[in-house]
Amino acid sequence: MGNVMMKVNLKFGGHNHDATVRSSGDPPQVMHKPASQEMRDILVLGADVTHPSPGSIRHCPSIASVAGSKFLGSMRLQQCKKEIIQEFESMVAERIHDWATGHKNALPTQILYYRDGVDEGQYGKVKNEEIPMIREALKQVAKMFGKSLGQAERLKNDIKITAVVVAKRHHTRFFGTNPSQHDPGQDNQNTKPGLVVEQLVNSPYFYDYYLQAHSGLKGTVKPTHYFFLQHEIGLSERQLVKLT
């Protein structure tokens, strides 16, 4: 019932969560000065595509969505089973426009993009097709806010983008070798929430890491695999792990 009421509250314009990141005890250094210029100018985007399930009506479309900072989102129907987002540029433009409206018409100088739901064979397509659309979307919004073509082009080229693929469909699992490494809140011998693995089982050529963000209620918990397609924004890889 609580879950249903949270959805009802959102639909009536209420707020379920405070957008300010808080932490108790020893705060992650990345959030220690949330008012710093590095943090203020970052727009966080998340994107995924949901495909029709087996047994759906023939040619039923897939649904692509992009969420941005402040929990706002855009959604489009697209070609059935197509993973690369077809109208990505227009959706990102909507997210940038809303972010800029809430920041006195200032445009973000850095974008942190989390991309869910793509297989390893599609990483190159995301980098070569979706990331350029983010730049074009910024140029499009810059012109909406009255920037000249030259200014808009410069903003498009100067913006720094970090793109990370978030993968859950994999077979990697971690376990503790003694009880002190087990999650004390569960009785299933899973590792503690917050486990980060970035050595030995990772790519020897690219930066990637596994993060177990929360407790697993049943069975063996599955860590999420984060793979950096490119990294340009002004936070270190270690800071981005903590922020995530």
Number of helical segments?
6
CATH architecture grouping of one domain? 2-Layer Sandwich
Q: Rounded to an integer, what's the Rg over CA atoms?
A: 20 Å
Structural class estimated from helices and strands = alpha+beta
The fold-level CATH name of one domain is: Nucleotidyltransferase, domain 5
| Shape field | globular
Average pLDDT rating = 87
GO molecular function, one term: nucleic acid binding
Protein name: Piwi domain-containing protein
Pfam families: Piwi
Organism: Ophiobolus disseminans
Topology:
Layout: H1 2-11, H2 37-40, E1 42-50, E2 62-68, E3 72-78, H3 88-101, E4 110-116, H4 123-144, H5 149-158, E5 160-167, E6 195-197, E7 208-212, E8 224-230, H6 237-243
Parallel strand pairs: 1-4, 4-5
Antiparallel strand pairs: 1-2, 2-3, 5-8, 6-7, 7-8
Helix pairs in contact: 3-4, 4-5
How would you describe this protein?
The chain has 6 helices and 8 strands; from the N terminus they run ααβββαβααββββα. With 244 residues, the protein is α+β, with helices and mostly antiparallel strands. The protein has a domain at 33-174 and 229-243: 2-Layer Sandwich (Nucleotidyltransferase, domain 5). A hairpin with a 3-residue loop joins strand 2 (62-68) and strand 3.
Task: Characterize this entry briefly.
This protein has 244 residues and is of the alpha+beta class. Helices cover 27% and strands 22% of the residues.
Descriptors for this entry?
244 residues, alpha+beta, Nucleotidyltransferase, domain 5, 8-stranded mixed beta sheet, 6 helices, 8 strands, 22% strand
